[in-house]
Design brief:
The protein is about 80% helix and about 0% strand. It is mostly helical. The chain has helices at about 1-10, 15-45, 50-70, 80-95. The chain is flat, with a radius of gyration of 16 Å. It is built from four helices and no strands. Helix 1 runs antiparallel to helix 2 (about 15-45) and helix 3 (about 50-70) packs antiparallel against helix 4.
Length: about 100
Amino acid sequence: MTLAWYGHLKFLHGAPLWQAILFGWLIALLEYSFMIPATRLLAQQGWAVGQMKITQEVVTLLVFVPFMIFLFKQPFKLDYVWAGLCLVGCVYFVFRSQ
């Protein structure tokens, strides 16, 4: 969803709003086409909804930080490391009860 939500700022910054919305929806449709089967598969494997959501947030951070740094030329901050460590804690607590 990173590209669907933020890609228009890089690639369509001068385009009309309707084009940015269409761009986001088309990318989101593609991403959801993978996400829905993945969550069904994980649910069949016994994953709880909370486990899937925390895992999604970890993947989002792993994708978003490089996306932000390399595509949008934003500076890296140590706060991203701390946020990642907080998510490691979330993963621990959400999966420890298995």
